[in-house]
Specification:
globular; about 400 residues; single chain; 12 strands; Rossmann fold; 6-stranded parallel β-sheet; alpha/beta; about 15% strand
Length: about 400
């Protein structure tokens, strides 16, 4: 089978890129041919045979002229249609697997895939993995940029609410563009051309199903994770006892709430690993140690040695890798009961769920585990029985989707 993996970034940049690289590699290991289409970039590490990519769109730089045409190009890209047609003619894929495509590639590529399929008689299934809420929300997060409140006002196609709330970077102009983009593609019915939409949580599926266009095309399939060996719970060192937050230091991640909880728990040692706009607020709290952004073995060691990790998010998270990763390493999670998070944590077995944004509940949950080492050890042992899909198990499921069996 030939699969064209489509994503605006073709270099390591975030979760969707990790997803396409690992899935693409696994598909190749199973004998399938995989090529990639997206933006050109100096860091691009995958590609296609004819070396056709769209121009790199830098929203934070570029010439004055380029900035003037960006609003149009973020809605409809003739360049993306022309370039992907060249790739389609050469590669002749059986499946086009869409990932993040809005703004830089635009949904115009969906029209070109359907046009190519019709003109050539080549059957080509269009599959889309939803990494965010871009098909139903102009700012992709269902969270107001200014108030940081979760928002469902645009569900059902009421995109004018994005402009009223200035939901895209607090800018009315950008919110108008986002609103127009959403309205345009929904009026054209472009998303009806997507055969299957993979939602990485049942929660996300419920939000996408609010659209009559998307309903009936959505499939819940949690993300995959590498199988690892759990920690030995008998090696706890009380002298190194700490709880860990790792991730972005930002409002929507619940950092303000977590900082307040830290202040109320002076006896607890907190280690924060990450970076973000709220980083300077950590220095004012004596029992927080900020070790900065960590990856690889350093981060793994921090997670494994922690008594438990904390995931206090306050927006509609989908299938956060951090929650899965922590449990795979045998470390329980205190997680916010929001979005797809409760689908990943077995409450009171592999962690504790608390009401998102509720400082008092978060304090109680942290104190409960901090004071009860036996309970933490039992939860750590329970984590050994947690089963998330490995990449090979995920492959078996996605091949069925590619074949139209689901």
């Amino acid at each position: 089978m030939k699969i064209l993996m489509i994503n605006k970034f073709l270099y390591p940049n975030g979760g969707s890129e990790t997803y396409i690289f690992k899935l693409g590699k696994n598909l190749e290991e199973h004998g399938h041919e995989v090529q990639y289409f997206g933006m050109e970039h100096a860091g691009r590490c995958v590609g296609n045979r004819v070396n056709e990519y769209t121009s790199n769109m830098d929203f934070h730089g570029g010439s004055t002229l380029s900035k003037l045409v960006y609003p149009i190009k973020t809605i409809y890209s003739t360049e993306a249609r022309k370039k992907i047609r060249i790739v389609l003619d050469n590669f002749k894929p059986d499946v086009c697997h869409l990932n993040n495509f809005n703004y830089q590639l635009t949904p115009s590529i969906i029209l070109e895939i359907k046009k190519w399929s019709k003109q050539t008689g080549q059957k080509c299934k269009i599959v889309y993995t939803a990494h965010d809420y871009q098909l139903v929300c102009p700012n992709h997060m269902m969270n107001n940029y200014i108030t940081h409140e979760n928002c469902e006002k645009c569900l059902g196609g009421h995109y004018g609410n994005c402009v009223k709330g200035r939901c895209i970077h607090g800018s009315k102009a950008k919110s108008i563009i986002g609103c127009l983009e959403a309205k345009y593609w929904n009026l054209r019915g472009t998303y009806r051309n997507i055969d299957s939409i993979i939602c990485c949580s049942a929660f996300m599926k419920s939000k996408l199903d609010a659209s009559n266009v998307l309903q009936g095309r959505t499939i819940t399939l949690h993300n995959f994770i590498d199988a690892v060996k759990s920690k030995n719970v008998d090696t706890y060192d009380n002298n190194l006892k700490y709880c860990l937050y790792f991730g972005r230091f930002s409002e929507e991640k619940g950092i303000r709430t977590l900082i307040e909880a830290c202040k109320q728990l002076p006896e607890v040692k907190f280690i924060f690993a990450g970076t973000g706009p709220m980083e300077e607020k950590l220095g004012a709290v004596n029992n927080i140690e900020n070790v900065g952004f960590k990856t690889g073995q350093e981060l793994e060691n921090l997670i494994r040695k922690a008594n438990f990790t904390i995931y206090p998010s306050e927006w509609y998270e989908n299938c956060p890798f951090s929650v899965m990763e922590s449990q795979m390493y045998g470390t329980p999670v205190v997680g916010a009961n929001i979005g797809g998070i409760p689908e990943l944590i077995q409450n009171n077995k592999t962690g504790i769920l608390f009401e998102s944004g509720n400082v008092d509940e978060l304090v109680r949950a942290i104190r409960t585990l901090w004071m009860d080492e036996t309970r933490v050890k039992i939860m750590s042992q329970n984590c050994e029985n947690v089963q998330f899909d490995t990449i090979d198990q995920y492959y078996e499921k996605i091949i069925r989707i590619y074949n139209g069996e689901v």
